[in-house]
Write a structure and sequence with these properties.
The chain has six helices and two strands. The termini are far apart. It is elongated, with a radius of gyration of 17 Å. Helix content is 72%, strand content 3%. A two-stranded antiparallel ribbon has the order 1-2.
Length: 175
């Protein structure tokens, strides 16, 4: 296992744990403002999927110990760009950002930052990360499996989120 893998893996896991803490803080604020949660039945599966992704990535890299691909620098650059875009998404939504689908009835939908151009930029970023991170370390099984699982998760999550936003906010007027 390469030192690069350990560094990237540890940083990403820490980043995700910090994001969960931010999400929890935002959740408390949103619920205090009267937010409602939508899609709670699939949330536990999403958490399990993302946790399993990191376990799968670690195990595949440990077992096969493949060398970095020739184009690893490009993959690392794409991954680092996704981290910048990820922070931009989170900061654009501010207290409204969460890992759960929490909707504040009557709220004005945020259409700033990357949300000016695309409805769900964070999902595009996560999908890219779930492909690029394993490919960076030649973890092909993890890349393929979690790309498919993520598409399935998003096929459930995005419609639930869109439906709630249309019903409870000014989403239709903004988008």
């Amino acid at each position: 296992m390469s030192g690069l893998f350990l560094i990237v893996f540890i940083i990403v896991v820490i980043q995700r744990l910090v994001e969960l803490a931010v999400a929890k803080r935002n959740e408390r604020w949103m619920l205090g403002q009267g937010a409602v949660e939508v899609g709670s039945t699939h949330y536990k599966w999403m958490v399990l999927m993302h946790t399993a992704f990191f376990v799968s990535l670690l195990v595949e890299v440990l077992i096969f110990n493949r060398p970095l691909p020739a184009f690893w620098g490009i993959l690392l650059a794409i991954f680092l760009l996704m981290q910048v875009l990820r922070v931009w998404c989170l900061s654009s939504l501010g207290k409204f950002w969460n890992t759960k689908i929490l909707i504040l009835p009557g709220a004005n939908v945020q259409k700033k930052g990357p949300y000016r151009w695309i409805r769900h930029p964070n999902y595009v970023i996560v999908t890219t990360e779930l492909l690029v991170l394993p490919l960076l370390f030649n973890a092909y099984v993890t890349a393929g499996l979690f790309f498919i699982l993520n598409l399935w998760m998003l096929s459930v999550r995005i419609p639930a989120e869109e439906r709630a936003l249309r019903e409870l906010t000014d989403y239709n007027e903004v988008f």
